[in-house]
């Protein structure tokens, strides 16, 4: 008799695997004699705090002198601070990479998701919360999702047990007819229950588990509410491992802070929002300590992309900003603390990425990284642990923008072949036509980031052989990427 292999849907397999793991946990606990450690006592809790549009120069531990962030600074001094942490240049791709452990383009998400889109993170993707959930974790996303607007793309369908936050950016509207509304939904600013479904679009809502609970959301209360929800969730799940993905809306525009923090910084409302994020981080750290969970909880603070420099953000010594593959658009703060595990005062300039969180956290939880697809992220556990000989597991860092690959970093060398817009110059009668043109120009550049972190001196003429080698590696990667793309999910409705 011949056996036949029957394919199993990812969701079904996830349920089966979770059930098996739960059964194994019961058997393991039963087999442990008194005094021995159980899995729950050794499996770390994880909190990933993701700010929105916070730049390299927006925290005092990264050089800001007009924004005070003592709690995040304490995370750095008592844990680890990384100075070469890379993400995508805009938000949705970074979030897709963090969830899948892959380059966002590989996972079908090439750019920012907008309400008009009918695509999102494919339900067949295997996500970080799913992998942790299979290891017995309680999982929550508190804050912004931004990986698809329809229900099929929402967090509860990607491994999260609980969601409290916004479907996308706080600046974006949504289509009211694709959402459910709570019986006690709060309607503000002239919105009504009878009128909401007659609207073509509506302002940013607040959602709990796919159900709208307030519209428009009171954005001055985002950080306060997210902090309370995070503390509530970790308190309710203190007796089991948990994963909280706290994705703040700030400091994305429109900028809002609660009354207590308005006027608190030296950098206007932009700085106020970040000082409130720091307060939030401190409240969470304090709660972990009060619950006796601080020694067994890894807390990470980072950002989804570079700053909006036109609205108060700073990339510090880096050139560029949000949307650019210059360092200022893709290199952001990354601070991690885990008392007793991460040595205090650890600092590293080794290049790591947001994609690395999936394999690293999955391994910490005792799980296995999927081997049926390309996972670009690498395990950075030895770097987090502060091992003195730890090096970046990446041979190269690739700079993706949209569906293209703009550049590559190998060691200290960065090669970039990007199409930029020349600055617009108002033409006058005396000005030659060539000086007034605004057209796209392709400029190849080569920088040594150890000597020139601000990307000011193009060394391509001095080191053409290095440029050729990096250009070849970039082209080889782009060829491989095109061969191993996975599609985004597509919804039937708008």
Describe the structure.
By secondary structure, this protein is α/β, with parallel strands linked by helices. The protein has 13 helices and 18 strands. It has helices at residues 10-31, 39-42, 70-78, 91-100, 128-133, 193-196, 222-236, 268-290, 327-330, 357-364, 381-384, 433-436, 464-483; strands at residues 45-51, 80-86, 119-120, 138-144, 162-166, 180-187, 206-208, 211-215, 242-247, 297-303, 331-337, 346-348, 352-353, 397-401, 404-410, 413-421, 440-448, 489-490. The strands form three sheets. Strands 1, 2, 4, 5, 6, 7, 8, 9, 10, 11, 12 and 13 form a twelve-stranded mixed β-sheet that branches. Strands 14-15-16-17 form a four-stranded antiparallel β-sheet, covered by helices on one side. A two-stranded antiparallel ribbon has the order 3-18. A hairpin with a 2-residue loop joins strand 7 and strand 8. Helix 7 packs parallel to helix 8. The protein is globular. The termini are far apart.
Give a brief rundown of this model:
The chain is 27% helix and 20% strand.
- Class by helix and strand content? alpha/beta
- Overall shape: globular
Q: Quick one: how many beta strands?
A: 18
- On the 0-100 scale, what is the average pLDDT? 89
Q: Provide the low-confidence segments as ranges.
A: 1-9, 11-40, 422-440
